[in-house]
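Hi support team,

I submitted a single chain yesterday and got back a structure, but I'm not sure I'm reading the token output correctly. Could someone confirm the output below corresponds to the sequence I sent? I've pasted both exactly as they appear in my results page.

Thanks,
R.
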Amino acid sequence: MFSNLTPTVKNLLIANVLIHLLANISPNDVIRQLFSMYNPVLPGTPDLWNPNFKPWQIVTYMFLHSRDTFMHLFSNMFALLIFGPAIEMYMGSKKFLKYYLICGIGAALFNMAIDYYTFFQYPISDATQRYLSIKSMLGASGAIFGILVAFAMIFPNIEMMLLFLPVPIKAKYFVAMYAIFEIVQGFQRTGSGIAHWAHIGGLITGFILLQFFHFKKRNFY
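Hi R., thanks for writing in. Yes, this is the structure output for that exact sequence:
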């Protein structure tokens, strides 16, 4: 597994782990407050602008993970470790990094759009304004879902063994099933704190990018 670790994947793994450790020891959780992604606009307020939002958050949020559970960081980094090297070797390191970051940005924008669409369906109350002002998103999941869709499109027939399935499943079917699950969870809005629409946003962004990215195929399988 580690013998095939590619440069950008390795650097992303290191950056995410180090930033997670730094965020956990920062006083008053100041790093997450400054660098998580906040909705920039507060509907119904005089100046509309959310003081918690900073422009850099649209990138920095994807390098932060939940303080409450190590599994948030572990699950994202494990997926990056499993699927990332193959995509980086196929795309090349520079294009892979661009793809990763753009998928993360697209995920944030899509999730933000769903938030606003949802809240504009109802009168903007004080509670809604407060929720939008303090609600933040963090985690690499949107970028990771971009990697998943890339893997499914570039290597659609590679068979995968999953812990919860006794038979191998092709990558294209696995990602399709995962996407349907995320859409269902997004509509149910379970209140779990998981940004399901950001996951879908990462998938959609990745799919669109793959229509325009041109890759030099590399022989590594």
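A quick pointer for reading it: Strands lie at 37-38, 136-137, 159-160, 169-170. Let us know if anything else looks off.

Best,
Support desk
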